[in-house]
Specification:
This protein is an alpha+beta fold. It contains 5 helices and 11 strands, in the order αααααβββββββββββ. It has 2 domains: about 5-90; about 95-185, no CATH class.
Length: about 180
C-alpha cells in the first residue's frame, strides 16, 4: 500500500502527544530533538513540521526515529499499527468552524496557520471570501475564493483562487496542522 501524507500527519500528532506539547516555537523543536534517543536535528524537525520554509518529504531514517520516539520499532511498524487501528478509519469529529451559511455579507474574520501565516477575510456572500490582508502567506490582498466551511485543525483547500480576474492553481493553507485560529476581525 502506498503511504500518504496523512500517515505523516498521524505520526506528527503521535509525536506531539508523547512530547505533551504542540510544536509552535523554535525552542519546542530543540527540546524535542534533545528528548529523542535517536536524535533528529531541530532544523530537520522544523522543516518536517513546516515551521520554516516548505514542508519536506522526510527521509526514512527520520521517520524511523520519530516512530521509535512514540514507541514503535520503526516507521513500518508504526504504519502497520496505524492501518489496523481505528484512528485511520472513518469517524465523527468535532471542530471549531466558520460556516459561510451563517455569515452576513461584509463579516470579517482572521485565520491563522503555521508557522506564522495570518490572513484577514471579508465574506462576500454565496460562500465567497476576499482577502483583505495577508501576512507571510501566498494568498494576496484582493484574492477571492469559495469555501463553504473553514475548519480549525484542518487544512483549507481552495480548488481555485481568483486573482486579478484570473484563476490560479489550487491552493492549500495549513497543510500541516491545519488552520490553528479563527476569530472575528
Amino acid at each position: 500500500m502506498m503511504e500518504t501524507k496523512l500517515e505523516h500527519v498521524f505520526l506528527k500528532q503521535a509525536v506531539e502527544r508523547k512530547f505533551a506539547n504542540r510544536l509552535t516555537t523554535s525552542a519546542d523543536f530543540v527540546r524535542l530533538s534533545e528528548d529523542m534517543d535517536d536524535r533528529v536535528s531541530p532544523s530537520t524537525l522544523k522543516r518536517l513540521w513546516g515551521y520554516v520554509g516548505m514542508q519536506v518529504e522526510p527521509r526514512p531514517a527520520t521517520l524511523d526515529a520519530l516512530s521509535k520516539y512514540v514507541g514503535f520499532r520503526d516507521y513500518r511498524a508504526f504504519l502497520e499499527d496505524l492501518r489496523s487501528s481505528r484512528m485511520a478509519s472513518s469517524g465523527y469529529f468535532n471542530s471549531a468552524r466558520l460556516d459561510a451559511a451563517t455569515l452576513q455579507s461584509g463579516d470579517m474574520f482572521k485565520i491563522e496557520w503555521r508557522p506564522d501565516r495570518i490572513v484577514t477575510l471579508r465574506y462576500l456572500g454565496g460562500n465567497r471570501f476576499r482577502v483583505i490582508s495577508s501576512e507571510h502567506s501566498k494568498l494576496r490582498e484582493g484574492d477571492e475564493f469559495e469555501a463553504p466551511t473553514i475548519m480549525k485543525g484542518f487544512p483549507l483547500i481552495l480548488p481555485e483562487i481568483i486573482r486579478n480576474g484570473e484563476k490560479t492553481s489550487s491552493y492549500i493553507a495549513g497543510r500541516d496542522g491545519g488552520i490553528v485560529f479563527i476569530v472575528s476581525a
